[in-house]
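haha ok so turns out i had the wrong file open the whole time. this is the CORRECT one, sorry everyone. sequence first:
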Amino acid sequence: MANVDFAEARRIATNPLVGMERRCLVWIASHLPQWVTSDGLTALALAAMAVTGISYARGREHPGALFLAVVGLAVNWFGDSLDGTLARVRRQPRPRYGFYVDHIVDCLGVLFVCVGLAWSGYMTPSIAMALLVAYYMLSIEIYLATYCLAVFRLSFCGVGPTELRLLLAAGTIALLSDPTVNVLGRHYRLFDIGGTVATAGIALAFLVSIARNTRSLYRAEPLPCHP
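then structure:
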């Protein structure tokens, strides 16, 4: 297995924060002490999402837990964004291992958050489930495209993981003042509206990505012409 050739996929990110974020991450990675490892950062990212999910679940009874959810999102960004950067800065890349573990952790992290929101009462369980399914479907499409096209797309329509964390953190802080929002004269849960919009956006990205990648693969592998 160690001798199998592996071509790392080209990474595509169009979100507005990507340039500044990369420079910041490289600077942080170059100043971290040696005892901080990529695996440790990945584990930290997973633990942070577990804390975030639990904080949402306890938010109704203890509103202060919502601040802990925001901290969890920030710590998740730190661990999830830095693990690969640290490996590259130290010239210790493990592209197959890193890709696999990092995205398994991402899938678990989103599961923790969606379960926590469904449990909390801030989001209707059916909407949380729809959001989770949409995220997983898009993830499957991205990972298949990474394998078949050697292109790993990190953002869609200018929105990437960092922007999603910022939106979720802003919504969490807004819950402290009012967990509902007025739409056309009717009150809805703030996170139901946010979850519905996010699910629709992810579903649209899923369909557009399917169309784009199917076309690319069809053109790359035309049917043979028989005399």
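The chain has a mean pLDDT of 90.
again sry for the mixup
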